[in-house]
Amino acid sequence: MINMDDKRTALPEAFLERMQRLLGSEYEAFAASYEKQRQYGLRRNLLKGSEETFIKGMPFPLERISWVREGYYYDAGAQPGRHALHEAGAYYIQEPSAMAVAEIVSPRPGERILDLCAAPGGKSTQIAGKMQGCGLLVSNEVMGERARVLSQNVERMGIGNCVVCSESPERMAALFPAFFDRVLVDAPCSGEGMFRKDEAAAGEWNPAAVEMCAKRQALILEEAAKMVKPGGALIYSTCTFSPEENEGTVSAFLQAHEEYSIEETAFEGIFAPGRAEWVEAPGEGIEHTLRLWPHLIRGEGHYAAKLRKRGGASEKLPTEEPSEGAAPAYGVPKKIQDNGGAGKTEWSIPGDKKLCKLTESFLREELGIGGAWMERHSGRITKFGDHIYLTPEEMPSLSGFRVLRPGLHLLTEKKNRFEPAHALARTLLRADTQRGLEITEPEAISYLRGESLLCEAEKGWTVLFYEGYALGYGKASGGQIKNHYPKGLRKSF
């Protein structure tokens, strides 16, 4: 029996015995890491302002994380989740080692990228920041409730080029054959790497769960591989130490897929290598996969492998443009329908000609949104029921699919008038609109609670900013701003 110090998290005995067997002389350093305080991290939103503005506005000290330029450690007592800047999408709270995965994905503006197991959205929002609004990001989560959390986080971070789905890997593969430049599979796993962070996960662990997770991971990878275009990359990651779920899963995949090979990354020498000796038939190059250990870095446990698919650029899958009057149904909500057609406006956005003109006119004249914002956002204008979206142009038809977010929600039509969507506000920088108002911290807290504000502002729709970050819309009249912060998002702090 392996006894643990009282200071250590009560970990499963079978888990400790296996780690001791695997790590040998390194085990004591590994076990001692559980006596130490876990590391807390957050990541600056690259879509919202400069690093200088971010650092200046933060109410607590930060220390940079070495492997991600926008990542920072913070002290445990800071409570960044209970701050107006968090609600404004200035940053995303994320475990430091988890930030390494999107760095390994290495997304580029203009690419088509899939995050297949995306909830709650840490890696998707990090990828989106690096894409800078250019290209297509599809974030999928099969579990409905988790998918809703994912969609909320995408909206909070002000991401415009993301479609959020809730479908099985099999259904996704049928829709997107050889479509994506990069596919991330942050696979469901036994969670051993998060035991220091989540004691409940440690209590639920057992060897049978490891075996079950490995089988499920193999099935997910099989479908994910179908969606990578020739020359593209498939990135596999877990937050567990189990060789069966890491080197074992990757090795078995390589044996079945000769078109894939392990690609070296810039993080070799920064993170520990994969361990070929821990699996019976290691794939070629398995030592170039990466392990993040809590006793070697300031973070929890992770594993990542970057796989390259052989071949050159594939043929571009054409976007399925609906014909005039076509109305393919989307899964969520049921009333969603696409009424797009041919036509252009000065904004150079395809879609129903009349709808495009009305949308652009409202954005410019009623919301004071200028050309800088329009230069950063492209797509096709589509109407789903009473809701107007800007859908990424490269997104094919999702008829029959469960879609929570078919792009950027711009406007809602109510009794022959438009109202701006909360998602639109979250994409705005201070320079994007002439109808913005900077408010104080007490006013920001009141606004997030759903309260009206006593402020002088031009009559009409007004975006409320705190420290330069957009919180949402209000409507000004008679020295008062009526609160339009969504009721479901309002806070009690």
Description:
It is a single chain. The protein is an alpha+beta fold. Among the domains are: 319-428, no CATH class; 435-489, Archaeosine Trna-guanine Transglycosylase, Chain: A, domain 4 (Roll). Helices cover 27% and strands 22% of the residues. The chain has helices at residues 13-23, 27-32, 51-57, 84-87, 99-105, 122-131, 144-156, 169-175, 199-204, 207-226, 247-256, 353-366, 371-376, 422-426, 441-448; strands spanning 40-44, 63-64, 71-74, 91-93, 112-115, 136-140, 162-165, 180-186, 228-238, 260-262, 272-273, 290-292, 302-309, 380-384, 387-391, 403-405, 408-414, 417-420, 436-438, 460-466, 469-477, 480-483. The strands form four sheets. Strands 5, 6, 7, 8, 9, 10, 11, 12, 13 and 16 form a ten-stranded mixed β-sheet that branches. It has a four-stranded antiparallel β-sheet with strand order 2-3-1-4, covered by helices on one side. Strands 14-15-17-18 form a four-stranded antiparallel β-sheet. Helix 8 packs parallel to helix 10. The radius of gyration is 24 Å and the shape is globular. The two termini are 47 Å apart. Residues 1-7 and 314-345 have low confidence and may be disordered.
